[in-house]
Design goal:
Strand content: 15-25%
Mean pLDDT: 92
Strand order of the largest sheet: 3-2-1-4-7
CATH topology of the largest domain: Nucleotidyltransferase, domain 5
Bound molecules: zinc ion
CATH superfamily of the largest domain: ATPase, nucleotide binding domain
Radius of gyration: 23 Å
Structural class: alpha/beta
CATH architecture of the largest domain: 2-Layer Sandwich
Number of helices: 13
Distance between the termini: 39 Å
Length: 440
C-alpha cells in the first residue's frame, strides 16, 4: 500500500485527541478518548497506545502506512523528547519519544502542546509562510509558543516561551507558579473567575450568576461571552482588564521578537476574541517606537482544536524528505462540468454548496449569498479562511449584504465575488487558506 499518513496526538488534561493525517494536512480520521483521571504514567501511555491502535483499526490502515507519530503534552519537554514536567498529569520523567520509536519503529516528535499549536498554525493556519511568530493561548491558564527564523524557541531545558509566566505587574496577584503578577494571574480564565467572584461577593450586581450558576464555581469562556454580549458591566470590565494585561505583554514581546504575526488561540479567545484582540492590536499600533515600522499582524487561531494535533504532525513531518511527502494538495480540485454543474471529489454538484477552509464539502440546502445570516457565515467560515470566494453560476449574480461584509471584515476574511469560471480558477490556484461558496 503506497498511501502514507502521519499520526498526530494531543494529550490534554481531560482528553486525548488523535488523528490520522495525510502529508498535505488533511485529517482523514480522528477520535477522542478520555485521559484517565489521576492516572499513573503507565496508564496514560496505555491510553495513548490504545488511541493509536483504534485510529489504525477504524481507518483500516496497517501501521506500515504511517510515516511518523507526533505527540504533544501539556508540559515541559526537552530536546531529546523526554517529558520534564507535566503539572496536571503524571507524565513527568517519561522518555516519551524513545518509547514511541521503540514501540512503533518509526520517526517521532514529542513537545509542549502550545509550542506545537503554534507550529500547526504556521503550517496550515494563521501563520502560514511567517518565519517569526509569537503565539499566545489564553485558556484556564495562558500558554505561549515562539517561532524565530522558522524554528521553535525551546530554551536550554525546553521551558522557553512560557509567556503566561512573564511578570507584567510585580505587585500583582499571586500566580499558580509561585510568582506574583504573571500575565496568567491577570489574563487567564482562572484569574478572571477570581476577580468576578470577588466582585459578586462584594455585592456588585452582575448577570454572570444567572449565566454560570449561582455558586460561580466555574465560569466557562462561553459564559463570559454571553455576559459580554449582554453588556454586563462587571464581566466587560474584567475581560477588558485581561485584554489590557495581554496588550502590555504583547508590546514587550514585540520589542523582544519583532514578530510578523501574533497568533491568539485557546478557549478564551475563541469565545471573547472579538472583545480582546482589538485592544491588543490598538496597543501595538500605538507603540511610539514602532510608528515608522509596520506593526505586526494580530490574528486569531485558524485551526481551533486541531492546531496542537496538526502541529505535532508538522514537527514529525519535518523529519521526512520531500519525496515521501508527494501528496501535496490540501484542497479538493474543482472542475466545471457544464454551466450549472461542477465536480468535486468525484461528485457532480449544483445549486448552493460550499467548500470550507479545511477542505470539507458541505451541501446545506438553501443558501442565498446576499442574505447570509451570521450562523450561516459562521459555518461557511469555520476553520478560518483568509478569503471567501463566491462563485456565481450562469445568469446568477450575487453580492454580500452589508451585514455579511461587516462580519467578514471583523474576521479579517477577504470577500471575493466572481463569475463561475474565474472563481473556480482562483480557488484552484490560490495559495491562501480559502473557502468557496457556489451559487449556481
Ligand atoms: Zn506564573
Amino acid at each position: 500500500m503506497d498511501k502514507k499518513f502521519f499520526i498526530g496526538i494531543d494529550i490534554g488534561g481531560t482528553k486525548i485527541y488523535g488523528a490520522l493525517v495525510r502529508p498535505c494536512g488533511e485529517i482523514v480520521h480522528s477520535l477522542k478518548a478520555a485521559t484517565p483521571p489521576k492516572a499513573t504514567a503507565g496508564a496514560i501511555l496505555a491510553a495513548l497506545h490504545k488511541v493509536i491502535k483504534e485510529l489504525l483499526k477504524e481507518a483500516a490502515m496497517p501501521v506500515s502506512c504511517v510515516l511518523g507519530i507526533g505527540v504533544a503534552v501539556p508540559g515541559v519537554v526537552d530536546s531529546s523528547g523526554r517529558v520534564v514536567i507535566t503539572p496536571n498529569i503524571s507524565l513527568s520523567g517519561t522518555e516519551l519519544k524513545k518509547i514511541l520509536i521503540k514501540t512503533y519503529r518509526m520517526r517521532a516528535a514529542v513537545g509542549n502542546d502550545v509550542n506545537f499549536g503554534v507550529m500547526g498554525e504556521r503550517w496550515l493556519g494563521a501563520g502560514r509562510r511567517a518565519d517569526s511568530i509569537v503565539g499566545i493561548f489564553p485558556g484556564t491558564g495562558v500558554g505561549g509558543g515562539i517561532i524565530v527564523g522558522g524554528h521553535l524557541l525551546e530554551g536550554a531545558q525546553g521551558a522557553a516561551a512560557e509567556l503566561g509566566h512573564v511578570i507584567v505587574h510585580p505587585k500583582g496577584p499571586k500566580c499558580t507558579c509561585g510568582n506574583s503578577g504573571c500575565l496568567e494571574a491577570l489574563a487567564g480564565r482562572w484569574a478572571m473567575e477570581r476577580d468576578i467572584r470577588a466582585a459578586v461577593k462584594g455585592g456588585e450586581a452582575s448577570l454572570i450568576a444567572d449565566i454560570a450558576g449561582k455558586g460561580l464555581s466555574q465560569i466557562k469562556s462561553g459564559a463570559l461571552k454571553k455576559a459580554l454580549q449582554a453588556k454586563d458591566p462587571l464581566v466587560t470590565r474584567v475581560v477588558r482588564k485581561a485584554a489590557e494585561a495581554l496588550a502590555s505583554a504583547c508590546v514587550s514581546f514585540n520589542h523582544i521578537f519583532n514578530p510578523e504575526v501574533f497568533i491568539f488561540g485557546g478557549g478564551v479567545i475563541e469565545a471573547c476574541g472579538d472583545y480582546i484582540l482589538p485592544v491588543i492590536e490598538k496597543a501595538l499600533q500605538h507603540d511610539p517606537f514602532f510608528t515608522k515600522l509596520n506593526p505586526p499582524k494580530v490574528l486569531a487561531s485558524k485551526l481551533g482544536d486541531d492546531a496542537v494535533m496538526l502541529g505535532a504532525v508538522a514537527m514529525v513531518r519535518q523529519q521526512c524528505d520531500l519525496k515521501e511527502l508527494k501528496d501535496l494538495s490540501y484542497y479538493p480540485k474543482v472542475q466545471i462540468v457544464s454551466a450549472g454543474r461542477v465536480r468535486v471529489k468525484g461528485e457532480v454538484l449544483s445549486g448552493a454548496f460550499y467548500i470550507r477552509a479545511d477542505g470539507k464539502v458541505k451541501v446545506p440546502g438553501d443558501l442565498i449569498p446576499s442574505h447570509l445570516t451570521d450562523d450561516e457565515l459562521d459555518d461557511i467560515c469555520k476553520k478560518g479562511p483568509d478569503v471567501l470566494i463566491v462563485a456565481c453560476g450562469h445568469k446568477k449574480s450575487a453580492e454580500f449584504s452589508a451585514m455579511a461584509l461587516k462580519y467578514l471584515r471583523k474576521k479579517k476574511i477577504l470577500p471575493c465575488v466572481l463569475p463561475m469560471r474565474d472563481a473556480v480558477r482562483k480557488y484552484n490556484i490560490s495559495q491562501d487558506r480559502r473557502a468557496i461558496l457556489f451559487h449556481i
